[in-house]
Specification:
Blueprint lengths: L3 H19 L4 H13 L5 H13 L3 H11 L2 H4 L4 H17 L4 H14 L4 H14 L2 H12 L7 H11 L10 H10 L5 H12 L3 H12 L6 H18 L7 H10 L4 H10 L6 H20 L1
Helix pairs in contact: 1-3, 2-3, 2-4, 6-7, 7-8, 8-9, 9-10, 9-11, 10-12, 12-13, 13-14, 14-15, 15-16, 15-17, 16-17
Amino acid sequence: MAAPADKARTLRLERLGAMLEKGLENPAAALEVLISELKAGEPRADQWEALHAAASRDGKERELAAAYGKVTNERRLQQLSTAAQAELLVHAANFHLGILGDAAASDGLLWRVQRVVPGHAESFARLERRLEAAGDSRGLVELYAVAASTDARAANPLVSKIVNRIVPLPASLPLSEEACKRVLAIAPAHPSLFDVVETHCKKGKRFELACALLEQALLDPALTPASALDRRRRLVELYVVELEKPALAMPHVEALLQEDPLDELARGAAERLLSNRDVAPRAAAALQVARRQVRWSERQ
């Protein structure tokens, strides 16, 4: 004997089938039935398509659009698994593009899929095609960076695409700060990206952003000691030469001299900082320690 829950589910599906075939009286209710099926692990792709077709047939496009708006808000989405969230958002994107002809809304929903399930194959392919057709290199960089964040070790093809899109960007078409951060999030596994993003920021004279991103990169626990020292050298150059804010370089000068008391860049910066009232004592102390280390090593 069927359980009450099974009977109720069967009745809901029968009512849904009747609505899709004869008349979509309540688009929101039909949508809720299909979402319940998603929760149960039943994709029912044909019925999602039939729902969209029925809305178009019966003049219920606006009602279904409103229903989609409610079920795709963040609060409702959190009630679903990430896989179900992605599937629901893809169906919403299909409806907005295929029935409403709203490409911008559809793309926005596909971007949300990427943020829920980075690298989601269908939404990735669709967004990539649209961005390539539009010649939107900045959008492609962000898409590739989001997708690569799932598995940085397997992201080599995407990293190559990121580099190939960033390098030719002119200063007049800068990446957004968010896109830069996304690229740097995968940079520890692909150090060349540090160089690419830094060069891009310098090209646009966005030295403060370059420094902020490099400072952020230093906080990554996966950063190797050699990479960290390289980042610090670049920060010293940016703070001292480009931004003309040498005092901000002091922590990096100290770290570089501690690692190598003969580091010419760090020693030169420290000597310059002797005239800076705010950090002069620290610069003098760092140079004194470095000289002691050199003398000690020479006696060995």
